[in-house]
Predict the 3D structure of the following.
Amino acid sequence: MTVRFDRLRRIQRMDPVKDAHEIYRLSTAFEFPWDYTRALELALYRTYAVPSIGRLLARTGELIGRAQKRYDDTALLLDTVVEHGFAAPEGRTAIRRINQMHRSYDISDDDMRYVLSTFVVVPRRWIDTYGWRRLSRHEIVAATEYYRTLGRHLGIPGVPATYEEFEALLDAYERAHFDWDEQARRVSDATLDLMASWYPRPLAPLLRTATLALLDEPLLRAFHYEPPGPVSSALVRRAVRARGRLVRLLPPRRAPHFARQNREIKSYPGGYRPADLGTRPVPGMGGCPVRHLDASAGDVPE
């Protein structure tokens, strides 16, 4: 019988670099599946406040016109690698699709490094604040190494070497680049509307307020959102912390939980193939507003 801290003890007996993928899979699929889902949603959402990223996402129209599918494809592609690994056929296919999509647009290396840093830093900060326990040093190092490996597969140059370097990069990039942009605000509004759509309609205003209460001041300022009142913010944050304390009292998860099992994933009731996920911009059809490269002309990094 597995008891609450058995899996953590198992993680601490592993090598956080050599066993990085397995440790990260144990953390995301067994220890903190709900928290990692929320934290990675927030990680991607933060990137919209960088105008070069927010404007590009608005110009593609995906997160405004087809927000649910864009959310589903992103979550499923990233989680396919977590579930199956970098070397498995499913993982290689997911990475190939991500590379094909990225190569269709002009995205700077700086923006790519920043997005990668959000995947490393935001979950650690979220879980340390709201999780049923804090992440261990083994888990932090393993997550860092996992995303360093992902960054190499995505061909991102200059990937930071340590968690602390990722954290410094994220904080410096946000200080330098977070700013108001009307198109980025449209992407943010569409994302908040998507999240509210997962619940009964009468709850939508309450859910929007609750989401805004979980955002930090630089994000609220960049999007020109009115901050919720201090009472609302305190109540929401206490409620999320209380959830973590409750989870600590529950029996540990015995089966893994992956993104494809999340109730928020709605686009593929009949199943999906990683090769079919994601966008395929078509020049002249309104799907690709910027430079389009033919991914078939050469191999993409894997």
About this structure: Residues 284-302 have pLDDT under 50 and may be disordered. The CA atoms of residues 154 and 301 lie 6 Å apart.
